[in-house]
Amino acid sequence: MNPFARAIYRTGQVRHALWPRINAAELASVCEVLSDGTAALFYAMEKRDQRHGLEVTRRLRESGATGQELLAAALLHDCGKGPVPVWLRVLKVASPGTLRRLAREGGGWRGAAFRLQEHASIGARLATAAGAGALTVRLIEGRVEPGEEPLQALLLSADDAS
Questions:
Q1: Can you state the percent helix, strand and coil of the chain, rounding each to 5?
Q2: 88-140 confidence digits (pLDDT tens)
Q3: How confident is the model over 63-85, as a mean pLDDT?
Q4: Cα–Cα distance measured from residue 76 to residue 118, given in angstroms and rounded to the nearest whole number
Q5: Calpha distance 144→146 (Å, rounded)
Q6: What is the three-class DSSP state of 46?
Q7: Which among 2, 63, 76 has a CA at the least distance from the CA of 33?
Q8: What pTM, to 2 d.p., does this model score?
Q9: d(Cα 89, Cα 111) in Å, to the nearest integer?
Q10: Which residue in 57, 87, 76 sits closest to 125, CA to CA?
Q11: What is the DSSP letter of 144?
Q12: Which of 13, 20, 67, 158 can bridge 48 by disulfide, Cβ–Cβ 3.0-4.6 Å?
């Protein structure tokens, strides 16, 4: 992607992070994919992460993906982030090394940086506790078994495009 197109894309991401919109039909569609426990995990996510999960799911469906555990992973893959200020999200993209150096387990903005840095493993633990299937958990954590790599690639591609 050329630098101008990348700047436009990133500007759109910031706009969507600041003012996410989700309609009732999109929220209702979550229950078609997730169980009660995992749906509760989705509804506990920040609205911007819900919006992103719905967008990743839409992209997967448009590509023909129908697997329930893959779609569940799309909805929940950012559930480990918790509340994270937009400026930290921007820092992660602009300077991942700086974010890594600032991140500390605990509260405050350093804790938010830690969650942002470690959200895949945190999310996998949360999804397990909420009753997600084993494949969903592996996809969230990014530690798939042999033969599951194509599903991980689909998820990453849809995530990167959203």
A1: 75, 0, 25
A2: 998 998 999 999 999 999 999 999 999 999 999 999 999 999 999 999 999 99
A3: 97
A4: 14
A5: 7
A6: coil
A7: 76
A8: 0.87
A9: 13
A10: 76
A11: P
A12: 20
- Per-residue burial over 97-136, b if 16 or more Cβ lie within 10 Å, else e, is eebeebbeeeeeeebbbbbbbebbebbbebbeebebbebb
Residue type, 26: E
Q: Check if the beta carbon of residue 53 is closer than 8 Å to that of residue 16.
A: no
Tokens describing residue 57: 């799911």
| Structure confidence by residue, pLDDT tens digits, 27-56 | 888 999 999 999 999 999 999 999 999 999
Q: Which tokens belong to 93?
A: 């993209």
Sign of CA dihedral 137, 142, 146, 147: positive
Instruction: State the helix-helix crossing angle for 68-76 and 24-33, rounded to 10 degrees.
Output: 130
Residue with structure tokens 């999310």? Answer: 123
26 vs 11: CA distance, rounded Å: 24
What phi, psi does 27 have (nearest 5°)?
-65, -40
**For residue 76, how far is the Cα from the chain centroid?**
6
Q: Tokens at residue 1, please?
A: 């992607």
